Amino acid sequence: MAAAMLGVAAGTGVVTGGAPWPLLLAVTAFTAVGTILVTEAPHNTLPPVPDLPALDPAAAAAPARQPDLPKPRMLPERQVAFRGRAEELAQLLHHHATGRAQRDARPIDDPGAAGAQLITLHGRPGVGKTALADEFAHRIADQYPDGQLYATLGSAGHPRPPGEVLKIFLAALGRTEGLPRRTEDRLKMFRSLLAGRRVLVVLDAARNADQVRQLLPTAPGCTVIVTSRRDLGLSLYARGASMPVDVPSAVEAAEILRTAARTSPYEQPVCTAEIVHFVGRLPLALRAAGEQAAEGGQQLCGMARILRNEQGRLGQLQFRGLDVRGRIASEYRKLTDREKEAFHLLAMVESATFQPWVLAALIDVDVLEAENLVAQLCAAQLVDVAHQDSSGPARYHFHPLVRLYAREQLAERVPAREQQAARDRMHEAHLQVVRGSGGGLRYVAAEYASLIDAIDTAAANGDWAACWWIGSLLGDCVPYDLDPERCLRAFKTCAEAAEQLGDEDARVAVAVARGSYLVSIERYDEGIAALEEVTQQPGSEELIIRAHRRISEAYLQAAAYADARRSLERTAKLIRRTTDAHADPYVATELAMLKVLKAEMQAATDATRWRTDRPYQDVQAANDDRVRYRIQVNLSEVASRRRDWQAALDHLGLASLAERENARRVASVAYRTARVKLAAARHLRGDEGDRLAQEAVDLAAEAVLTFRRINNEVGEIRARCMLARALTRGRQLEEAGAQIRLASQALPDIRGAACAIGPLEARIKRAEGELLIDQGSYAAAISVLRRAEQLFDENRDVLSKAETRRLLGRAYRQISHISEAADMLWYAADEYRRAGDHVTFGEICAEIAAIVGR
Length: 854
Fold this sequence. Notes:
By secondary structure, this protein is mainly alpha-helical. The chain is built from 38 helices and 13 strands. Helix content is 62%, strand content 6%. The termini are far apart.
């Protein structure tokens, strides 16, 4: 050991005597920084360093504070356009406060208190890590009176040398002369200067853990915020991963876009939702689109039209230094050749999500190598984990803009012949899964688009059994962005396969699936006719029961409650005649669904059932996602009627998890969530009510777009009515009127949904009546609301009828028709009394009293 010894207080970098500098550097590199991760408690104990002697505890006295240092203020100017990220900021602030409190409560010689607090964030290029870190830093800056230091650690794909950053930091701390040449000596000086001080350090765009380690202070009073594309948590000797930063919610993304475009909160909501969808909610792309629209004086609908062209989308998202393609390319260039090949070929997957075995088929390797390749693409933030649950391995997906980039590279770098060979291997792999276990309903929902292609492959190969079997599985789900006519052609191919085999049960199974699919996209006439035909023919008892149940569900879904009641009674009789229905798992599931549908119908037509959840609580079908989904959406309805808004939203969250791959269900959840938020907004005043109304607008617009993406005209009209009502609550009467006109114009063109026409017209008229009341056109409002009341009555929709009569009472009151106003309000009040909704009953009684007192 060298004769000249320099002592250092443990973990501070201050020279006191007792240990050599090489030992100091080793200790501080491995143990001085106590890492605080947002996913775990902030008093992590770091692993011991092998072969290093322990420092003398007596040397761990509090370091002397350097006097008269400057107090740098290097944080970038606060972004006035920052929006959203409420959940992430709350999480960061909580963990920062917890970590600081635990550190400040410990003695300086306690090893658990040694080192700066470290908070790390990581995520894909353009996701908004820097903006989030900057906002977080500004919110905690006043807790660091000795200054804030800030540095970007990379630009144009090149890491910034730590020595260069340390030079800037030291200059900010007043050390501009006599700087050491070596990085390790600058680090030593930096740590010594910060000893005993409270300084916030922000290290943006870190490239690797070594770069960060050479910039970390060791004083317990300091906090370091690090952003990076890749997860550096484990590399920095932490016990968990850093905080992943994902794209914001759809509501927050819409707010980011409007802020960048400098548009009003309610302007062109569907076009806003469309842009948010096209760019996958990526903040960098939202800014690029919004700022272009603002700069060119272009409306958001014009920008949406431009972005509809997939081939030109990435090019359009380059504006004034905002370059989505460039950010993606910077990570792509770091891939190995094998990883690039995997990246290219995965772009061929048509389904929204995939599992690694699909890559094994595409690239013709074993599953283990495919899993490793997918893991490497995940680490590079070019592929993401979509979800993982108890049903099987994790599923992965591309961000929409990354998928476009991957397809560009595929077209440029992979010959058409190789693409076709890979595609054939993938389709054969899907057939192998179907021939084996069938994959289950979740597999079918996730791989729907790929299975449609596999049907063609099976038919071309004369594999009639696989062909019809795939078709029989496709009835309960609707995929995104897949032309219904393409799906219906596939069902026709499957029916022909069953005919080739002469298998009557196979033919019936495909017919039930086809009818179910038509019901799901709300082409009721065709769907119900196909299912009715099945019920008139001999065949499997299970399939006939299912056909009857799907007919009942169709009428209920269309809000044709009188027809739904008759169909449900017929289905119940059929199940009761089934031998040992509860013992047959298939029939037991159908029975559970039937109970849920019956309770749903009763809640819509009988006021005394509006607020009861017992029928749904009594149903036990934990293993069927379809039943779970239906239970959760109905529990949400009950909670909303009880004005328990948070419970209503929680139930809808569970419903979305049950069928997250089903576009029809996703659209329905968005619609229902908008309805809950609108109901809450109407009962709240001030900023909170306005905020909920704005969120209801964004969610209803999202539902409009999603229904349009699956070519569901009925659903789109229904969602436009909800959007109009939310806009009316937000006092955006002109835009609300535009949405009502669009819905009214589309109604006569509805194909094959006769049972839905009346309920849809009733919703349009109710929305129009609300708007006319707000516009002061009371006589016109009475006329259209009378029509809505009549239609709701014909369909036995008691709740909607009561709501409409309450609106009529208000309209009559405004034109001094006191008797009519009182009659309407008394009817509505009585229905709410029967429902046990004493709050709403009291509100209406107060309205009546005001009329009488008048």
